[in-house]
Design a protein that fits this description.
single chain, alpha+beta, Phosphatidylinositol Transfer Protein Sec14p, Immunoglobulin-like, 4 domains, 9-stranded mixed β-sheet, 5-stranded mixed β-sheet, 12 helices, extended
């Protein structure tokens, strides 16, 4: 479908006009990377127009909703370091080879997935990780989803996950789908497929292709088909981290790395010497430490940021941002300090991250603004004056233990070569897998005990019922004997 340059310009102008008039749903605006993509490139806008049959208003609505969702979900900040790496390494879904149209195949090995055995939120993040990675890799070119359903059954059917996947294509990733190729679907899943089909728009239904070993060649060449499908490719999945471009100096040290904090423009980090610096001449805030040290308390990892309003006559407002908003919970992330007041903010590591990734690459930004009007709305203050705020950059030191011993985590942080990182990630993945197995076994054991108690209770009830029936029969027989006499 051809899209004229005028339609793309109209969509871009309408978007920024709406943004200026209404503002973004999030008080901190859309992600700057998405704003830059709308402002500077045409391809993304073209896809929204194609997806909506060249209807500019519908394309605008979809673009707006997508930007809002991407900001809230943190799409631009997702990497293999902040998702469940062990989920990626299992190979339940992964990209490999291309179909006959030259589109990358995103393969789902359905027999490896069992509903309810994994954290659903983490599964969502993993699939979005692959979508974003393929967007970068293929520059927005369409992909084909390949469901390998050989040897699957009802236990592998996950309607919720399938509906989520369909929703991504329908709502947030425009014109991204080439084919849905379903390989050897068992007949027992026919009823479920009818439900799934009802979730799809009419034009997506036309893209569904049912294949087996003999008909697969119509959509995938033999050289691009896995040997399990009757093809010539004996590929065995191994997860390979994405290589992202960075700017380095001649000695290999990072010079100018773009750091995207959760709700601000990308800021240039000038290496370790810049950590803790601020831009304005008059300092308003002092930070106790430029390093956030995480400690373990029971099953949670947390750190603290302690800072002080060093002004004796000014109230200030502070705000804290992070490069990984999905990984950390900051409480409170915004507030007001009276003159000379000290505040302590807690940073919690979200569940699911403690075992498979030290936060050595994550950064925090503490900002502050003087308050002239004490009755002013804090969100409005940051919306109008946030760009002039003083900034203090903090880093994470690694995870410590209950007694504050961080030597072990610092060892990992200081020896962060690529081979060491891979070995460490594999170790954490195995530990996570062992924990999942342990939780599953524990659940099975609890269920078994409950079943045993139920069986005992039923046996006792049955014994009581049998005794009652026998006593009734004996009494009736005795009464009949007496009657005949």
């Amino acid at each position: 479908m051809e899209v004229s340059a005028q339609l793309i310009t109209d969509l871009r102008n309408k978007f920024f006009k709406k943004l200026e008039a209404d503002g973004a749903p999030d008080p901190d605006g859309f992600h700057p990377a998405d704003i830059a993509r709308i402002r500077d490139t045409d391809n993304w806008l073209k896809r929204f127009l194609q997806h909506n049959e060249l209807n500019v208003q519908e394309a605008l609505n979809m673009l707006w909703d997508s930007c809002d969702w991407r900001k809230k979900f943190g799409c631009n900040d997702i990497t293999e370091n902040n998702v469940r790496r062990d989920y990626l390494e299992e190979g339940i879904f992964f990209p490999h080879n291309k179909d006959k149209d030259g589109k990358t195949l995103l393969i789902f090995k359905s027999k490896l997935h069992f509903k309810g055995t994994k954290d659903f939120g983490e599964l969502q993040r993993c699939i979005v990780y692959w979508f974003e990675r393929l967007e970068r890799q293929d520059k927005g070119t369409q992909i084909s989803v390949f469901f390998d359903m050989a040897d699957t059954g009802l236990s592998n059917l996950d309607m919720e996950f399938t509906k989520y996947l369909i929703g991504l294509f329908k709502t947030y990733y425009p014109n991204f789908l080439n084919y849905i190729i379903i390989y050897e679907m068992p007949w027992v899943l026919n009823t479920a497929f009818k439900i799934i089909k009802s979730w799809l728009p009419a034009k997506a239904i036309q893209k569904i292709k049912f294949v087996n070993k003999s008909t697969l060649k119509e959509y995938v060449d033999a050289d691009n088909a896995l040997s399990a499908w009757g093809g010539n490719d004996d590929y065995s999945f191994t997860f390979v981290p994405e290589e992202r471009a960075t700017t380095t100096s001649n000695n290999g040290k990072l010079e100018n790395k773009k750091v995207h904090f959760v709700d601000g423009s990308p800021m240039t980090e000038q290496g370790p010497s810049g950590i803790g610096d601020h831009e304005n001449e008059e300092s308003l805030l002092s930070i106790d430490s430029e390093v956030i040290t995480f400690k373990k308390d029971k099953n949670e990892y947390s750190g603290t940021i302690t800072f002080k309003n060093i002004s004796l006559d000014k109230c200030i407002s502070y705000k804290i941002k992070t490069t990984s908003p999905d990984k950390f919970r900051v409480r409170p992330s915004m507030g007001v300090l009276q003159p000379a007041q000290i505040a302590q903010v807690t940073v919690m590591l979200q569940p699911g991250y403690a075992l498979h990734g030290l936060p050595r690459n994550d950064k925090f930004l503490v900002m502050c603004l003087p308050m002239k009007d004490l009755n002013a709305s804090i969100p409005d203050l940051w919306k109008t004056s946030g760009k002039s705020a003083q900034q203090h950059r903090l880093r994470c030191a690694g995870l410590g233990s209950e007694n504050g011993d961080t030597s072990k985590s610092n060892f990992f942080a200081n020896n962060s070569g690529s081979s060491g990182d891979r070995s460490l990630d594999r170790l954490f993945s195995k530990v996570s897998q062992l924990e999942d197995c342990q939780n599953k076994l524990h659940g099975d054991l609890v269920f078994s005990k409950r079943l045993q108690l139920i069986s005992i209770a039923l046996t006792v009830l049955m014994a009581i019922a049998i005794i009652y029936i026998l006593r009734s029969d004996i009494r009736n027989a005795a009464e009949q004997v007496c009657y005949h006499r």
